[in-house]
């Protein structure tokens, strides 16, 4: 039932921009959409949000920077006894956090992401979430990379720094035309395991409607810090009473006639949705993968900030942030 539900109240997504040879031109509509996302995200990524992010994701350790003269209140354990003995004046060692991290955004652009019954499609919200995470990471001088996937790896952009790089990330998500493609998260995670050699923070941004990705995710989570960002639409959780409707699966093309006027059908759908959400949460918790639930009809910034605030706590278990 989940797959069939995805074209209910379906909007008409924007067509892919035209191509000339290997170069892809951006349509005026897509260009305006990218610019609007950039403006919103830049406004949202405040100093406070960036600070929460920095506290949540620590660097690889501490690196020696210099020695300086001892000041009252300094920790005596930091005294450099060799320099102190040579100079006759107490000196202490100073360290700085080796802060630079690699952040990898893995974004689902399959057919089911082109669905929405509120102001935005799921893939548009995914682009904004990815852009917010990218800007926040780059604000902290971290590297950001992107992998988009459907039933195959669509695009891979290696981690890099710079605000211009964020533009490229947003553009790569929005211009992807995978409306009728299925989902293979397992293949995307296997590919990522081959190209991502240094430990990274990996954000999986998807609706997680596919199956068969358990083992690939378990392998990836064993090497990297993985955070699942589950994006859903309110009509995937509750069914409206609008009589007989024909549902079209955006990924397979199959159709199903359903009586939404039946209270039993609506109740069964709601229970199945809740069960699926609980199963996903249980699966991810068993792999120590954090989960952030984001709905297309609700602001997502608060969800991210809430996650950043609790993520850095020592000895924590898998985190769940609901909407």
Describe this structure in words.
The protein is an alpha/beta fold and 323 residues long. It folds into 2 domains: 3-17 and 26-56 and 99-321, von Willebrand factor, type A domain (Rossmann fold); 63-97, no CATH class. It is built from 9 helices and 13 strands. The chain has helices spanning 28-44, 47-56, 81-87, 122-139, 163-174, 185-195, 214-223, 263-286, 301-311, and strands at residues 19-20, 23-24, 62-69, 91-97, 102-108, 143-149, 153-160, 201-206, 225-232, 244-248, 255-259, 290-295, 320-321. The strands form 4 sheets. The chain has a 7-stranded mixed sheet with strand order 7-6-5-8-9-12-13, sandwiched between helices. β10 and β11 form a beta hairpin. The longest helix has 24 residues, at 263-286. The protein starts with 18 loop residues before the first strand and ends with a strand.
Secondary structure layout plus pairing:
Elements: E1 19-20, E2 23-24, H1 28-44, H2 47-56, E3 62-69, H3 81-87, E4 91-97, E5 102-108, H4 122-139, E6 143-149, E7 153-160, H5 163-174, H6 185-195, E8 201-206, H7 214-223, E9 225-232, E10 244-248, E11 255-259, H8 263-286, E12 290-295, H9 301-311, E13 320-321
Parallel strand pairs: 5-6, 5-8, 8-9, 9-12, 12-13
Antiparallel strand pairs: 1-2, 3-4, 6-7, 10-11
Helix pairs in contact: 1-4, 1-5, 2-9, 4-5, 6-7
Give a brief description.
The protein has 323 residues and is of the alpha/beta class. The chain has helices spanning 28-44, 47-56, 81-87, 122-139, 163-174, 185-195, 214-223, 263-286, 301-311, and strands spanning 19-20, 23-24, 62-69, 91-97, 102-108, 143-149, 153-160, 201-206, 225-232, 244-248, 255-259, 290-295, 320-321.
């Amino acid at each position: 039932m989940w797959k069939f539900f995805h074209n209910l109240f379906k909007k008409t997504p924007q067509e892919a921009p035209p191509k000339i040879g290997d170069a892809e031109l951006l349509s005026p509509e897509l260009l305006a959409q990218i610019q609007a996302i950039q403006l919103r995200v830049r406004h949202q990524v405040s100093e406070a949000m960036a600070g929460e992010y920095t506290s949540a994701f620590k660097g690889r350790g501490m690196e020696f920077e210099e020695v300086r003269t001892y000041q009252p209140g300094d920790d005596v354990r930091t005294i450099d006894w060799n320099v102190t003995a040579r100079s006759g004046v107490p000196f202490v060692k100073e360290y700085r956090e080796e802060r630079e991290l690699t952040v990898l955004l893995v974004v689902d652009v399959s057919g089911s992401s082109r669905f929405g019954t509120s102001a935005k499609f799921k893939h548009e919200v995914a682009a904004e979430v990815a852009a917010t995470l990218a800007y926040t990471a780059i604000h902290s001088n971290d590297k950001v990379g992107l992998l988009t996937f459907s039933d195959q790896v669509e695009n891979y952009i290696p981690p890099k720094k710079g605000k211009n790089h964020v533009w490229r990330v947003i553009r790569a998500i929005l211009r992807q035309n995978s409306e009728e493609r299925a989902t293979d998260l397992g293949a995307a995670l296997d590919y990522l395991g081959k190209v991502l050699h240094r430990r990274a923070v990996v954000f999986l941004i998807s609706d997680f409607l596919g199956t068969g990705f358990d083992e690939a995710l378990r392998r990836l989570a064993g090497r990297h810090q993985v955070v699942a960002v589950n994006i859903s639409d309110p009509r995937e959780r509750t069914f409206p009473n609008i009589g007989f409707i024909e549902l079209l699966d955006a990924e397979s093309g199959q159709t199903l006639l359903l009586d939404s006027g039946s209270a039993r059908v609506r109740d069964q759908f709601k229970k199945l949705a809740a069960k699926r959400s609980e199963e996903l949460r249980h699966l991810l918790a068993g792999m120590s993968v954090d989960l952030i639930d984001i709905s297309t009809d609700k602001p997502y910034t608060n969800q991210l900030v809430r996650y950043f605030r609790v993520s850095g706590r020592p000895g924590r278990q898998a985190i769940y942030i609901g909407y």
